Amino acid sequence: MQQTLENIGGTVLANACGPCIGQWNRPEVKRGDKNAIVTSYNRNFPARNDANPDTMNFITSPEIAVAMGISGSLAFNPLTDSLVGSDGKEFKLDAPGAAPEVPPTGFDPGLSMYAAPPDDGSNVEVVVDPTSNRLQVLDPWEAWNGEDFQDIPVLVKAQGKCTTDHVSPAGQWLRFRGHLDNLSDNMFLGAVNAFTEDIGTGQNQLSGEQVQPIPQIAREYKAQGLRWVAIGDHNYGEGSSREHAAMSPRMLGAAAIITRSFARLAETNLKKQGVLPFTFEDTDDYDRIKVDDRISIVGLDRLTPGQPVQCVLKHADGTEDTVNLRHSLNQPQIEWFKAGGAMNYMKLQEGG
Description:
Elements: H1 2-7, E1 35-39, E2 55-59, H2 62-71, E3 83-84, E4 90-91, E5 149-157, H3 164-167, H4 180-183, E6 201-202, E7 212-213, H5 214-223, E8 228-232, H6 244-251, E9 254-259, H7 264-272, E10 276-280, E11 294-298, E12 309-314, E13 320-326, H8 331-339, H9 342-349
Parallel strand pairs: 1-2, 5-8, 8-9, 9-10
Antiparallel strand pairs: 3-4, 5-11, 6-7, 10-13, 11-12, 12-13
Helix pairs in contact: 8-9
């Protein structure tokens, strides 16, 4: 089978993430070149297959993907169209026959590489080269200081679809998956700015700069001790349950993400990192958020499951709006927030 695939120009990849996370190396297609592909990978977000946002990718079955690959044309219909062989004669592809759902002898489980941790890990030291740009030892997040978030800036107001790929793009960034600080330079680079419809840029409220990469703005806020809030549209965080789409905002100073609605796993991931995930009680309140607003989230000392939280929007013209925010935090998740994240809370429960 492998030789057959190679004979028709195929490249056999390892059984791993590969093009699904943007690692398809296509040197013949330059970034920015508009092109179209068919794929049987279950992802068709922009830049997902080959890190090129101008690759239009259409999901189909493996059989159709192979047939179109052989023909070299998206207009090819394997049910009706003919191809020309090396002998100059026309022929049609045979329809695929039935295949077993699983190998007759089952799947090879491979070798287990799991090494159990010691019962007492207190003396275990993880040694990482401090000059590495690929690996980084993380310190625990800081615990909540018990105060409301007052007059914090809006980092970005994302318009439309804002998936985990928009929040934490893959592709070229994957080499930094072990170095969160470096990886966080990709944060929100795929998000569409609702105020300008530009992608990956926003307005810096401190410097007044109108067009600046979003992660750079976040770093400047963090350097000044400012937490910030990001605003999302419907179904924020759709896609794979990528922890980095929650960890990078936490790394760069997010206090809360406020949306019209969340994808479930994205909402849970934010809770685990101690970032408050809120939804507008009235989804039209999304439209009240202005580019230069300062936001206060008040009454956090009374944060209670099922009870809304008040949010005060202070506009640059001196006017204010007060909106209600909903949340799905249960009591243990509220304790995660107070401790600075789920792992901090678990450590406290163990007496650490």
